[in-house]
Design goal:
The structure holds 2 protein chains of 2 kinds. By secondary structure, chain A is mainly beta. Chain A contains no helices and 11 strands. Helices cover 0% and strands 58% of the residues of chain A. In chain A, the strands form 2 sheets. In chain A, strands 2, 4, 5, 9, 10 and 11 form a 6-stranded mixed sheet that branches. In chain A, strands 1-3-8-7-6 form a 5-stranded antiparallel sheet, with no helix packed on it. Chain B is mainly β. The chains are: A mainly beta, B mainly beta.
Chain lengths: 112, 114
């Protein structure tokens, strides 16, 4: 059975800090790993990773995948209060094509 | 009113039917998305389009076929679906295809496959 473990479960930082969120996974025949940001409404897609070692970057957010060690990290630099949210990691494997297995999320709180 | 419209709002179809879901936005956004939300599960990304070009396909079965004729319209063509495909299908758009960019969601199409 596919499994996703995120750490830490919660994190409190101050504006300007840099944070690293972790996602480790077990999946049969890995297809993709996705990061989402969820505030009060529906989750927002952040990144989709399929290849190892290739960093995806957008503004202050970046993410990378290690398919050998079965994990991904999401980095947020110069955090702002608007970054406060739950960050979800999900994986898709071949045995459940199109179906995602989600982690429990990391709740990030950025204080002024 | 979010500026993103979806039709139909509800759809019941048999496993042998062919139907299409439509999404329209006139917000001037360049990126559009299809998501699926099954009961008691988080949203799952299906497809991403940027300037009419598909940039992401989250291993979606071929019985779901997206089409993006222009930046304002997005379709999801459905063919020989399974009962487990019953879900809420949400369309979203964002100004640019950037991680963390706010996405504007439509009201969704509630699909039931018999």
């Amino acid at each position: 059975e596919d499994k996703v473990v995120q750490s830490p479960l919660s994190l409190v930082v101050h504006e300007g800090d840099t944070v690293t969120l972790n996602c480790s996974y077990e999946v049969t025949n890995f297809r993709s790993l996705l990061w989402y940001k969820q505030e009060k409404k529906a989750p927002t897609f952040l990144f989709m990773l399929t290849s190892s070692g290739i960093e995806k970057k957008s503004g202050r957010l970046s993410s990378i995948l290690d398919k050998k060690e079965l994990f991904s990290i999401l980095n947020i630099t110069a955090t702002q209060t608007g970054d406060s949210a739950v960050y979800l990691c999900a994986v898709v494997g071949n045995t459940n094509a199109g179906k995602s297995t989600f982690g429990d999320g990391t709740t990030l709180t950025v204080k002024p | 009113e979010t500026g993103v419209t979806q039709t139909p709002r509800h759809l019941v179809m048999g496993m042998t039917n062919k139907k299409s879901l439509k999404c329209e936005q006139h917000l001037g956004h360049n990126a559009m998305y299809w998501y699926k939300q099954s009961a008691k599960k988080p949203l799952e990304l299906m497809f991403v389009y940027n300037f009419k070009e598909q940039t992401e396909n989250n291993s979606v079965p071929s019985r779901f076929s997206p089409e993006c004729p222009n930046s304002s319209h997005l379709f999801l063509h459905l063919h020989t679906l399974q009962p487990e495909d019953s879900a809420l299908y949400l369309c979203a758009s964002s100004p640019q295809l950037l991680g963390g960019n706010e996405q504007f969601f439509g009201p969704g199409t509630r699909l039931t496959v018999l």
